[in-house]
């Protein structure tokens, strides 16, 4: 029989042999998935009946082991990359003593989560405790933990998903979903466990989000080893090419197990929730996360106003585009450029087109705030949709006519509730095998 690695009832990694087991440390970053089992049945019966577990694993085919972890079958000897088992971060020795103490104080609030559908793993990620009342802890994480893909882009929350949470040590706790926002890819889950360590969401506003780069730290916890992980970097201001235009970026380097974990500043405040990309680390700012949580607590779900346009504050455009725009329009910088309008969207039906300049919105002058702040304003206004199918929003736009004149007009958008087909897409690099170099 092949020796194999699993997780016992205490959530510990164990090295299994027939009629015996021992704790196996350390855990390698690129394991052979055939040796690793997250099986739900094994987790709950291992210590009670180890011989039955041996029967489970002894005759399991190689392909079945990979399938249960959601990994492809390798064709030849190779390294698995973009796996959920790959760790990230650096030793604390590389960070100064004051920051070390601050980060260690945050460690108990950072958790790891893993979800399963039947006996197959769905997702593994990190999260943070944001509230703890009445013997229950509320954990913020990524909605990918509970979402399944239906078609190319539509996602839905799985009804039969099982979620397990690891804190600093000890057993895994089963969790339930309170609510989630598939559009912004955040979820909130509840664990029946009192937890005194809670992290505060720092909701930056307006110009403070566009201040000079600051030192930040991406935090996460490894599900198997339960190791606390830290990657240092700084906030980075760059053009966003993702579907979710509200994302911001840091230079911290994480792996997939850091998805859903917090990005904190040097004062220990959470400034965002991390996601994974091979080149940089995008994060959703805390002000949007906070607004999503307020919606779920107040309304039971997150309600979005849907315009169907992609806008950007004029002042945030690069110098060349800004110069070209200034040649066409004479205006103050406190306005919004309509970069793209989806066909058949509420904005398109109102007459708004690509390249228009919005100078008034909701009956007030448009303010050149960062995109996340503008999105937070829309979430605040979304309560208008609670008892209506649509809401009329007046917009004043400027447009260059065919005779090089500037036309000014008021248009009315019949804003609707955002439907699942219009949710942002959240692509994620899939686990794949890299061929080992020949000796």
Automatic annotation (TrEMBL):
Species of origin reads: Spinacia oleracea (Spinach)
Protein name as annotated: Uncharacterized protein isoform X1
Taxonomically, the superkingdom here is Eukaryota
